[in-house]
Design brief:
alpha/beta; six-stranded antiparallel sheet; about 30% strand; globular
């Protein structure tokens, strides 16, 4: 308990309930030969509590006094009892026999700002993990005997086949938790030791979608707003899975959603419901794919079309066709940089001269965890810690994460989108036609901030840590 390890193993954690841990200010260590070893706040009346605990647990108790600060740290991290989640989660015990156990699990995930719930089984254990700010955290351990019950309840709720255990299945669940509608995308995958389930939490609340809060700097925002006001052309947003591309698109659609415009989308999945936008769910099993939907869209008198993703040459060519016939097309694509998007489309077989005439804007995007403003600390910094190409920078201080009650001792609180925005002007259009792969000199001459530059700015300003941006700096160069 004196090191910086954070979460207790689930089999140790659930030796106590949340109420027991906070009432007695204790943290479990282990049970060996009917002796329950516990850490306790050194300011407690240890002998009195020892006697009471032996009655409660019916076994011998051995208490190890440690500092109040350390006890508080582990209580907040492993038995969260803050005002934010007290009513919803404080008494949550995972009981698969309860009819609302799945709803309770989803409620816990929402309160912890989780985007996904992973329910998985291995040879000798089963567990539940939550993805919080892009990182998986183990939250529950499940009895191996109870695991099939959990899977079947999820399958029934998602309208999946409970008898099918050999093939992957997809489904959808809808909940209304605390007056908030939550759509859950269910993915079931057969593995060596049983079926793994991932629940993706999709919120319908669009009130927080604000283009001013996305993360664009002033120059990038101006370029973006100018591009989306055009009547035709293509706007592409690139980045890996989970980089916030879809949120950027929905925020854009919310801004463009006017009575005078006919907006059509084809998505997989539909993550937000936008009143006034005609949204279509992709169903490849019956032939409703991106390219087929786009063909139909062109007969629906659209003004704006949103494609969830450009995956293949046919979809790319249909998008180009839509832009050429006077429509504004928004879409995403998996590439590493804004300029790399254009090379990828050319590799797909799209003629470079058509790209030059239709692409309005290319955007690359990443999501970076932000240091908790309450507990981050300033440290000295040596530039040799940066990749070689950045060691000529003059940086003498940095901020690092420590962890506190507010951020559940993770050191981070929330994420921020970082962008690279390239507007295709006449000069760049010529570069596209000539298939130039490198526009570094153009970016420097025109003061275009790259992803790497914007990531470094976040680090220099003390908003994030070097560890958080380092993988991106290596990857970008």
């Amino acid at each position: 308990m004196t090191n910086d390890s954070s979460l207790l193993a689930p089999d140790v954690k659930y030796l106590l309930t949340i109420d027991q841990a906070w009432t007695y200010k204790i943290i479990p260590e282990q049970i060996v030969e009917n002796i329950f070893y516990l850490f306790i706040d050194e300011q407690q009346l240890i002998e009195d509590i020892k006697t009471e605990l032996e009655i409660v647990f019916g076994m011998n108790i051995l208490l190890k006094p440690i500092s109040s600060d350390l006890i508080e740290k582990y209580l907040n991290l492993n038995y969260p009892n803050t005002k934010q989640i007290l009513n919803e989660v404080a008494n949550l015990q995972l009981n698969v026999n309860e009819s609302n156990f799945l709803e309770s699990l989803v409620n816990e995930a929402k309160n912890l700002r989780s985007s996904d719930i992973h329910i998985e089984t291995y040879e000798d254990k089963c567990r539940i993990r939550f993805r919080v700010d892009g990182v998986l955290i183990e939250r529950h351990k499940i009895n191996k005997v109870e695991y099939p019950t959990i899977i079947n309840k999820i399958k029934i709720s998602a309208k999946c086949d409970i008898a099918e255990k050999r093939l992957p299945q997809d489904g959808r669940i809808r909940y209304n938790v605390n007056n908030m509608k939550i759509d859950i995308r269910v993915s079931i995958l057969p593995t060596l030791h049983g079926e793994k389930v991932v629940l993706r939490l999709l919120g319908n609340d669009t009130s927080n979608l604000d283009i001013l809060k996305l993360g664009f700097n002033d120059d990038e925002l101006k370029k973006y707003q100018l591009a989306i006001q055009k009547k035709h052309g293509i706007i592409l947003i690139s980045g890996p899975t989970g980089s916030g591309k879809t949120t950027t698109l929905y925020t854009t659609l919310k801004l463009l959603n006017k009575t005078k415009s006919n907006i059509l989308t084809i998505e997989d999945p539909i993550e937000y419901t936008l009143e006034g936008v005609n949204q279509v769910q992709l169903k490849e099993s019956i032939g409703l794919n991106y390219s087929e939907a786009l063909r139909t869209f062109l007969r629906q008198d659209p003004d704006i079309i949103m494609l969830g993703e450009i995956r293949d040459a046919e979809t790319a060519q249909m998008a180009i066709r839509a832009a050429l016939t006077g429509h504004l097309v928004l879409s995403t694509i998996h590439t590493n940089s804004a300029w790399g998007t254009l090379s990828r489309l050319i590799d797909m077989g799209v003629p470079s001269y058509l790209l030059a005439n239709t692409i309005n804007l290319s955007v690359a995007q990443r999501l970076v965890r932000i240091l908790c403003p309450i507990c981050k600390v300033q440290k000295t910094f040596e530039v040799k810690e940066l990749p070689k190409q950045y060691q000529d920078l003059k940086i003498v201080t940095q901020y690092k994460s420590t962890g506190c009650k507010s951020c559940y001792f993770t050191g981070f609180k929330g994420r921020k989108a970082v962008y690279e925005v390239i507007s295709i002007d006449d000069e760049l259009a010529e570069y596209v036609k000539e298939r130039k792969n490198n526009i570094t000199d153009y970016c420097k001459l025109n003061n275009i901030s790259t992803l790497a530059n914007n990531l470094l700015t976040l680090f220099i300003n003390g908003e994030t840590s070097l560890e958080e941006i380092y993988p991106y700096l290596i990857h970008e160069n």
